[in-house]
Amino acid sequence: MRVDYLIKRRELRGRAAYMPSKSHVQRIMLCNLFSDSPMDLRLGGECEDIGLTARACKSVTEGVPVICGGNATLFRLLLPMLCQAKGAGEFLLSKRLAERIHADLSDFASAFGIEIRSESLGDTVVIKAFRRSREQRIFLRSTRSSQFLSGALMALPLGGKGGSITVEGETVSKGYVDLTVKTMKDFGVNVERTGNEYFVPAGKYDRKSSVYCENDWSLAAVWLTAAALRGNVTVSGRLEDLQPDKAIVGLLEDMGARVLKGNREVNVSSGDIRAFSADVTDVPDLALLLALLAAHAEGESRIYGMERLRLKESDRVKGACALLKSLGAEYCYEGGVLTVKGIRGEDKCHFMSFGDHRVAMACAVASARHEVYLSDADCVGKSCLDFYERFRELGGEYDVVYMGQQDQTHIIR
Fold first, then answer.
1. Which of 5, 183, 313, 318 stands the most exposed, by the fewest C-beta atoms within 10 Å?
2. Which one, of 127, 97, 52, lies nearest residue 313 by Cα?
3. 344-390: per-residue pLDDT in tens?
């Protein structure tokens, strides 16, 4: 079912409701799962990925196959943990996720001592994994994603062995590895790092009665971007949080938005947006928002590190270019660099989400400056089921204008 929204041109104002970071929540849930006495978690916030992880924890307990769907974080973290703790695991992946992780999975499995068998069943790929012998010292590459590195770190304490990991080459999204290490420490496992080497002791995860979960900076970045374009929004969050997407605060400040930083909150209001340069290698979820901002900035902006975005829920390079084309912006993509000349913009824009939650959210908040027709708008549930309710609470307005089959064309009148 496809749902299209007509979103009115409105500025967003107010305080955005707290939403726990799904990246942090999933790490907490998996450390808790393998602790000596798992607690009953009450973390708040709902999204499809957290729901899949909750069901995965139940599946592990019951000894049945784990349904990952399109949740890459869940699969990459749980695969090594389950093999290390139980010796084997079976996972059901969406066809798109299997395509995304294919090359990295083969390399990781070889390095971590896991035998992989896969079978395609229509739109589902069944992955069966079996633990094999390996050296205590592991060599990994994390040049396309850091999640297998995080999964390996979380797995090593299990099974009573521990071990070390040497990272070869540059690690992308390093902040999420830091978040992994902190979460492990919260559950009683202290990882030592020296340069590109990680040392993980044997042991177990301790039960925790409570644990701090960071606000979701990826979602907060959406609201702050809307405010920078036109509006005034406050979000909860600590600037010492480890999620890389908190970088949106400094980026918005540098490009001319008005930014007020408090102890546990950040306020952004609109200003004269200037051209900027940014590298999204460590913050890929900001790429679509930065493309939107670049289209409204005075001058020529450049966004580097875009190429790895082709292997997300959709080809987000294609999504960014489609967004800019709909806005009427001048842009050029070459060699992983997106160059954008700022524009005054079309009054009305028609966007496609490509079934990708990050694309849909960026397109939705373009309504700060434009009337927006957004096709396949409801895919936002992957990271925030009540995204449009939160949008309305901040002053956004929209109408459902089409519900029907994905492959049908709807004529806008």
1. 318
2. 97
3. 677 899 999 999 999 999 999 999 999 999 999 999 999 999 999 99
